[in-house]
Amino acid sequence: MIIRIQTHELRIGMYVHKLEVFWLKHPLVRNHMLLTTQQQIDVIAESGIKEVWIDCEKGRGPDRADPLHEQQSLPQTTGMHEEIAQAQAICLHAKGQVMSMFSDARLGKTIDTGSTLPLVDEIGGSLSRHPAALLSVVRLKTHDDYTYLHSVAVCALMVSLARQLNLDDEQTRLAGTAGLLHDVGKAGISLEILNKPGKLTDEEFDVMKLHPVLGEDLLRRSGGEAAVLDVALHHHEKVNGSGYPHGLKGNDISQLARMAAICDVYDAVTSNRPYKAGWNPASAMHQMASWEGHFDRKIFYAFVKAVGIYPVGSIVRLASGRVAVVIEPGEGSLLLPKVCVFYSLSANHMLRPEVVDLADRYCWDSIAGPEEADTWSHYNLNTLWMSPVA
Prior knowledge:
With 390 residues, the chain is an alpha+beta fold.
């Protein structure tokens, strides 16, 4: 349903169908777009536009009390590829905000932890519309933006995991904030070590291990919440007591810190680094599950449900002898995602990309197991899940 509303009724999550003006040219605002930031709404309001047409089937409806609009007041889900563009915009905006926080911290300034809440809400909104889009986009990082987008990725993973664990809205937002700020102590580590293109020496790693203490100290001076401080300090603890900085065991580690330990490691091992290609997401799940004493098992199983056994971007081998990339999670089963087939192992050549829904009742193929990412690193496979295949 397309309806006309007053500009002051615009909210994040609404889909702008038509602005009815031809003179507004702004990089953040256009016809046929989903509103993901308050800044977009402010641009429309400040331009003098009084009324806007919105599509209630593609986004949330107006916050009105009458029954006609009641069922349209919540954000609606969107398709994977529709949400990817929004996720890319969110990541770009979030990267800038995190960079600014790190810059302030390096200058010895405190940071405004409360200013992160709108960003956490933006990330949560994207996850509500399509859980896999942002989690997939934020995994793509260059060496230069790894530190900043890693914080954004952990935020998104924490929100997704919190929802899987049925935490309430306040705890979920706290989890996201803690994820966004968990590595802020790295602002106190020299750039020579932080940006080193190769593996750290033992001495350099000892310096790097100071970042949880530095982060907790910065957040305390900044007036951060106790739970956020705790995650910054203890996200490298392990349930068997072999972690750092305090060697805490089991339930002596807070739930949020146990959650952050999983989210932090998953994003780190699946991201490309200068000295090491990121693991295939499906292989990462398998490897992390085998690490005895590292993670809280109950929380890890919830994490697998939240992200998927075969997350988007995973390279898998099919029973038919073909190789495919997971392009969308399965709706009914973690084992039956949508994939894009691109290679034949038996014929040893590339195939025309073809989308296969493994959950389709007429599908005769299935996943035999994950493929090693290194084997396919010379192919640009991200395009297969980032863009629709005809």
